[in-house]
Amino acid sequence: MADRDEPGIVCVIVSYDAARDPLPAVDAALGHVRHVILVDNAEVARDFDRAKRPRLTVLANGNRGALAGAYNLALAEIDAHLAHASHVLFLDDDSEVGALPDFLAHAATREACFRGDVAAVAPVYIERETGLRLAPIRLRRFTYRLLPRDVAGPVDVSFLINSMSLWRRQALLRIGPYDEGLGVDHVDTDYCLRAASLGYRLVLNTATPFAHSIGRRRMYRLFGKTLQSGGHAPARRRMIARNTVAVARRHALAWPSFVALCLVRLAYEALGIVLAERDRREKLWAMARGVVDALRGRTG
Question: pTM for this structure?
Answer without folding.
Answer: 0.94
